[in-house]
Amino acid sequence: MLGEASALGASFSWALTSILLRTQVTKLGAIGLTGWLFAFASVPFLVLLFATSKARELWQITLLWLLLLLAAAIVGRVLGDLLWVKSLQAAGVSRSLPASVSSYPLFTIFLAVLFLDEAMSYVMAIGGILVMVGIYLVAHPPRHAEAEPPQGKPALVKVGVSLAVLAGLLWAVETIILKRGLERFHPITISIVELPIAAAALLLIAGMRGGGMSLRKYGGKGIAAIAAAAALGVVMGGLLFLFAVSRAGAAKTAILASTSPLFGLPLAFLILREPLTRKVAVGTASCLLGIFLLMA
Questions:
Q1: What interhelical angle do 260-267 and 122-139 show, nearest 10?
Q2: 170 in a domain, yes or no?
Q3: How many domains does the structure of the chain reveal?
Q4: Any domain includes 147
Q5: What angle do CA 227, 233, 234 make, to 5 degrees?
Q6: Sign of the torsion formed by the C-alpha atoms of 47, 50, 52 and 55
Q7: For the purposes of burial, counting CB atoms within 10 Å of the CB of 17, is it exposed (0-12), middle (13-18) or buried (19 or more)?
Q8: Nearest Cα to 68, choosing from 174, 183, 201, 158?
Q9: Half-sphere exposure of 199 (CA within 13 A, CB side)
Q10: If you compute the radius of gyration of the chain from its CA atoms, what whole number of angstroms results?
Q11: What is the pLDDT along the chain (296 residues), one digit of tens a residue?
Q12: Distance between CA atoms of 266 and 261, rounded to whole angstroms?
């Protein structure tokens, strides 16, 4: 039960983070912003590493595990996020978001059963389906909420959806590697290995794309929002997620951690005054019933 609650806590923290960063992403782009998020979050993780005497674990990381953790960072946090951004540009939010948040749990369940020998009960399967259907309904905005992709380019839309699904697969691969890593190392140790390399890679890519790597372009309020989001989403949310993976398993965590749209849209309604629809209400009810079955 504690692992499942941690997964929901991670999902809620990510929803709050998305609200904090909504305007910054719109103005300045997701790649450089994500890089700075990881860079800011590396500092408190470094403090926690020494404060909790986990620094000695760094010397216990073999070359094989170092390569695996670096691969997880590149596969999930760098390539997965890059493909996600590309999918948004090609297919739009209304197609990319449901594709990614639905495919990630499905791929994780498949890989967890295949490589981690995690059990899948009928109740868990039904709960997972209800959650994923609910996520799809909640995450799929009404057609008037965004501009449709250019007419006459259905191939571009298909490419965008394919990239979103591939991003879900890469996130699933990272989750499976982390599950194995958590059997050997503390979440803080894993995070201090992953985050700096992901931050450096994303900031380098942002610089190569002409986005620049300077913090000054974000302004004082923007930097404060990034710092708060790093503490809330990357540090607290990341620790809750890793704890959930270690306690509840990769498959169940992937399903519950994908419910951030369930929290995000009500928060967007309360804070940003974005409208709620009947479809969102049905999707929320489906998610809540699925969560109840998963935590039973």
A1: 30
A2: yes
A3: 1
A4: no
A5: 80
A6: positive
A7: buried
A8: 174
A9: 16
A10: 19
A11: 788 899 989 888 887 777 777 656 555 667 888 888 899 999 999 999 888 888 889 999 999 999 999 999 999 989 988 888 788 777 766 567 667 777 888 889 889 989 998 887 888 888 888 887 877 776 665 555 444 444 446 677 778 888 888 988 999 999 999 999 999 999 999 999 999 999 999 988 888 876 656 777 777 888 888 888 899 988 999 999 999 999 989 988 988 887 776 776 666 666 656 566 777 778 778 877 887 787 66
A12: 9
Count, residues in the chain: 296
User: Do the Cβ atoms of 212 and 88 come closer than 8 Å?
Assistant: no
Instruction: Let me know if residue 148 belongs to a domain.
Output: no
For residues 222-251, b (16+ Cβ closer than 10 Å) or e, as one string? bbebbbebbbbbbbbbbbbbbbbbbbbbbb
Domain that holds residue 26: 2-142+153-295
Residue 120 lies in a domain: yes
Q: How far apart (Å, rounded) are the C-alpha atoms in residues 33 and 199?
A: 10
User: Could you tell me if 139 and 97 are in contact, meaning their C-beta atoms sit under 8 angstroms apart?
Assistant: yes
